[in-house]
Design a protein that fits this description.
259 residues, alpha/beta, seven-stranded parallel beta sheet
Length: 259
């Protein structure tokens, strides 16, 4: 169960090597989270992440999880919940793809869609059902500002996130009143710590600052959103106004913007 400060005592990260997922786990461990499950494909990076979190005082376990292997999700994730209640599930896996390559190689585009949308729908429904069965918990879904409006630069990735965002919103409505809280997180362009801002979103002069964020900033917003039981979180918060404006730009003009 969550403690008096609203922090989950147990956390499941789907996408166990995700920078945002690990940044969130670090912050929650500092806020009394004691048990962490990192679900992802077996790799040295997954084991290294688990070791680091153990060094911060948490009991950490890893589990083999493949977003594309949807037939295994019910069994794999179900076993985690049999070990004890999970207070928070963070759905943090996803791939950006390569827009130019994906347009030329449809199977690559399909992999982006299957990972970011189909795999997320499968895992999200399995976890939502388990949370509902235990009667409490939060499901936090990492969406993206890219899903707010299709852009020439990344419409394949953006469309997968748009589908995920709509799914998560609907799931939140379906679970309203059950004790399960669903929160959708919409970050802007996330740059790894210590790197310079880059990518198509970072090239818009009048929106450069509000569109760029970091894994730790997203993690901080997630923790705050959990405490407030928010349903939608924009990171940075200024993105809400920026995207509200961009959504209403006529398509002929939108095509000419450097995005």
């Amino acid at each position: 169960m969550k403690d008096a400060f609203g922090a989950p005592q147990s956390l499941l990260v789907l996408g166990g090597t995700s920078e945002i997922g690990l940044a969130t786990a670090r912050r929650l461990i500092a806020c009394r989270t004691r048990t962490v499950w990192l679900a992802g494909r077996p790799s040295p990076a997954l084991e290294s992440a688990a070791a680091e979190l153990r060094g911060r005082g948490a009991y950490v376990r890893t589990v083999d999880f493949d977003a594309l292997d949807t037939e295994s999700h019910e069994t794999t994730l179900g076993k985690i919940f049999t070990e004890g209640d999970i207070d928070m599930v963070l759905l943090a896996f996803g791939i950006p793809g390569d827009q130019e390559r994906d347009e030329e190689e449809p199977l690559s585009a399909v992999r982006v869609a299957q990972t970011n949308y189909t795999g997320a729908v499968s895992a999200g429904l399995v976890c939502a059902g388990a949370l509902q069965a235990q009667g409490h918990g939060s499901l936090v879904v990492l969406s993206s500002v890219a899903g707010e409006r299709a852009r020439r630069a990344d419409f394949i990735y953006g469309s997968s996130k748009a589908g995920l965002d709509a799914f998560a919103q609907g799931l939140g409505d379906a679970l309203h009143g059950t004790g399960v809280h669903v929160m959708v997180v919409r970050p802007g362009h996330v740059q790894p710590a210590g790197t310079a801002a880059e990518g198509p979103l970072a090239t818009i002069p009048f929106t450069r600052t509000p569109l760029v964020t970091t894994p730790d900033a997203v993690a901080a917003a997630i923790v705050t959103g959990l405490r407030r039981r928010s349903e939608t979180v924009w990171v940075p918060g200024a993105l809400r106004a920026v995207m509200s404006a961009l959504r209403h730009v006529p398509r002929p003009l939108f095509r000419r913007l450097p995005v």
